[in-house]
Amino acid sequence: MARKKKVVKKANQTIYYIIGVVLMMLALVSAFQLGAVGQYLTLLSKYLVGNFYYAILGSLIIVSCYILFLRKTKYATLKNITAFIIINIAVILLSATLKADETVGFEVFMKYIHNTSLYFKKELVDFGGGLFGAFFYSITSYLFDKLGTYFLIVAMCSIVGILIIPAETYRKMGKFFSEIFTSKELEEVPSKQEEVIDANSFEDYFKPKEVSNKKSTFITLKEPPKVEEVIEDSVIKEEEVVHKKSVSKDKYKLPPFSLLDPIKGQQGSNANQVAASESGRKVIEILKNFGVNAELVATHIGPSVTKFEIKPDSSVKVSRINAIQDNIKMELAARDIRIEAPIPGKTAVGIEIPNIESVPVKMLELVKSIPMEKMDQKLLFVLGKDLLGKPVYCQLDKMPHLLIAGATGSGKSVCMNTIITSFLLRCHPDEVKLLLIDPKKVEFTPYQQIPHLIAPVISDAAKASSALKVIVTIMEERFDVFAQCGVRNIKAYNEKVAQDSTGSMQNMPYIVVIIDELADLMSVAGKEVEVSIQRITQLARASGIHLIVATQRPSTDVVTGIIKSNIPSRISFSVASGIDSRTILDQVGAERLLGNGDMLYVPIGEPSMIRLQGVYVTDEEVNRIASYCSDLRKPMYLDNFIKLETLDSDDNGGIVSANEDPLYEEVKEYVIDVQKASTSLLQRRFGIGYNRAARMIDILESNGIIGPVQGSKPREVYIKKEQID
After folding, report:
1. 86-101 pLDDT per residue, tens
2. Full DSSP string of 539-593
3. Of 233, 261, 522, 667, which one has the fewest beta carbons inside 10 Å?
4. CA-CA distance, 379 to 540, in Å (whole number)?
């Protein structure tokens, strides 16, 4: 009797293995549509389970693997099998819900059964959720309606997570978040003696903790900061301000998004939609009156412009549409229109007309929607929205330089503020440095004390030319450092710094040079400025130095051929004439822009221009962000730019010589003691202003205590400490 039971058990196992092999073979044949059988099984699978039949075929492969190998393992539990069934039902139900129209109840299932012959004749290609999906949706839509079905799908996925993830994990997660919130409640207003330390990850938290005398995992009481500074033996690169500090001493935090104006509710306008519908019909009639037969393919309502995609007959010349541009403008009673004939990559012509109501693009909306894969890009800045309403972001290191032109009042200054504000919101002062050149003396006033500056805001054209030469020198010295380290660019160098365990290398920040008005510089020192810009734009990309140039007069004597050839990425706001448009963009179109941030953007490597509505950032937002950054840290200027600034005025009554400065002897002793000297070092150590510290450096140099400026290398201290002793 026992032998008979054993034989039956072996026979059952053999049947299981046969079933598993057959299911595996059918799933693979159907997945790759092999032969008539594979094609028919694919069609049958689509009919039964819908568009997500690949997921079901994958599940079939999992079932066959379970039958063949996993039936007696720890994975073959009732919870896992239940979760597997629920997730498959959720996938089929989601596919059916996405395809469903307004029909609900059992009429959905009957309608699907009625169209069975059409599905097998391949006359319908969208299967939705298949037969099972239609059945499940007919029940859920009758009970919960379509929106309730989505809630049910979410609930089913949550149940699957509860069944699969162990309960211990949820308990640990709950404990993790409860400790975070508890620690935040214990904190009072942030003071100078407290610092919150981030938990790196769940894994670090779940690891066994060592026994410690600390009262809290997340709050560390910090000792009062000491006056001593870390003295480094290595060669300091162009910034002596970046000293080795512990994380606890770095008080700088990125500005919060709450400093930006909130987004108001009016993002869409019904008036624009009504006007677009009427204008689209009218455009087709106008074209027909002039003998151009066409059809309206698509309508895109942007923040300030609506774009109609018109597909003319193949016998119509595109030039005929361009010829009647003014007639279309008159018939539509529009301020101006722009025709893109044809749209690159499409068999259509674009006709752009202004909206009835313009919707401003707010900074907060775009900053919050930056994709996760671009969060770590330090030189990324927001630009605006295209005609489809999609945010447009630019990476300055990919451009690698930018040329901006536009008439007065077209939105050029707001665009410059947007770029600088993007850097302030996203970049630490030790990661990105700014050199601002403002010949008009008023555009960059809010940024005079931000910590990202490597030099005071330069407003004198002659000093601006010298500053560009200093940037060229810094670029050459960076390349020397790269050659010594065996790297090709700043990214590889910083990666090598991160891997350096000795601490002898320092991170190299990006430098962004922003010139607000190029025309004024070219009128004072045109040849020198042009040569410096040429060298920077040709070579500086690898060294992490990038240039943004703006001008309101895009004539050929300002935007020369050399400058244009080395700056392929350009932005044009509204200009006075088609000649100016050709100068900046190499084609007409910018003269028909609307102003107020309406721009044409030519990214590097793209075949055509992109029309955007620029971000509108107010002066109040700029002032709040700049003030926040200035309060956290003061700017530390490079010694290379000392000679560019006049040192006549001073913080303490115009001290002009060593004998009149009570700090001179103390500064002299300190410099000899630490064997290094820089303006920023004296600013930090003695709490004095930039002018006084810079004059002190000059006095030390004239008295033979320290050597002259050697580019980005530190000054040499001639008198050693042993000589004094």
Report:
1. 887 888 888 788 777 7
2. HTTTTTEEEEEEES---TTTS-HHHHHH--EEEE---SSHHHHHHHHSSS-GGG-
3. 233
4. 15
Query: Over the stretch 205-254, which tens digit does the pLDDT of each residue have?
Result: 334 434 333 333 333 333 333 333 332 333 333 333 333 333 333 578 89
The answer to whether the beta carbons of residues 299 and 293 sit under 8 Å apart is: no
Is there a single domain that holds both residue 349 and residue 408?
no
Give the phi and the psi of residue 392 in degrees, each rounded to 5: -120, 125
Does residue 136 register a pLDDT over 90? no
- The CA-atom distances, in angstroms, between 166 and each of 81, 206, 355, 646, 716 are 15, 14, 55, 69, 64
Q: In this predicted structure, what is the pLDDT of residue 383?
A: 92
- Cα separation, 288 vs 290, in Å, equals 5
- Return the pLDDT at 238: 36
Q: Does residue 344 have a cis bond before it (omega within 30 degrees)?
A: no
Q: What is the reported pTM? A: 0.59
Residues 411 and 547 in one domain: yes
Which tens digits make up the pLDDT trace of 101-130?
Answer: 777 777 777 877 777 766 666 544 566 777
Q: What is the CATH number of the domain that holds 323?
A: 3.30.980.40
Single-letter amino acid, residue 690: Y
**Listed range (302-311, 411-420, 681-690) with the worst mean pLDDT:** 681-690
**CA-closest candidate to residue 552, choices 381, 441, 382, 411:** 411
How far apart, in whole angstroms, are the C-alpha atoms of residue 86 and residue 160? 7
Whole-number Å distance between alpha carbons of 609 and 617: 24
Structure tokens at 467: 């500053």
Closest CA to 245 of 257, 262, 233, 228: 228
- 589 or 223: which leads in pLDDT: 589
Same domain as 63, residue 153 = yes
Highest mean pLDDT (candidates 218-232, 304-318, 516-530)? 304-318
- Could you tell me the CA-to-CA distances from 3 to 7, 8, 10, 11, 15 in Å, in that order? 6, 9, 11, 12, 19
Contacts 24+ apart (CB under 8 A), 344-350: 344/607, 344/608, 346/309, 347/311, 348/297, 348/298, 348/309, 348/310, 348/311, 349/294, 349/309, 349/310, 349/311, 349/312, 349/318, 349/321, 350/307, 350/308, 350/309, 350/310
SS3 label, residue 81? helix
> Are 411 and 522 contained in the same domain?
yes
Domain membership of residue 207 (yes or no) is no
Residue 626 confidence (pLDDT) above 90: yes
Question: Rounded CA gap, 415 and 615, in Å?
Answer: 7
Number of Cβ within a 10 Å radius of residue 227:
5
Q: Which of 310, 312, 281 shows the shortest CA–CA distance to 298? A: 310
Tokens of 255: 């500005």
In the predicted model, what is the mean pLDDT of the chain? 78
The pairing of strands 610-616 and 598-602 is: antiparallel
Q: Are 310 and 340 in contact (CB under 8 A)?
A: no
- What is the span of the domain harbouring residue 472? 397-628
Q: Which of 628, 661, 680 is the last residue of a domain?
A: 628
**Cα 319 to Cα 342: distance, rounded to the nearest angstrom:** 10
> What is the number of structural domains in the chain?
4
Exposed, middle or buried, 190 (CB in 10 Å: 0-12/13-18/19+)?
A: exposed
β-sheet bridge partners, residue 233 = none
| Among 552, 279, 509, CA closest to 412 | 552
Q: Name the band, by pLDDT with cuts 50, 70 and 90, for residue 71.
A: low
What's the mean pLDDT in 679-708?
82
406-455 pLDDT tens trace? 988 888 889 999 999 999 999 999 899 999 998 888 889 999 999 999 98
Which residue among 110, 132, 165 closes a domain? 165
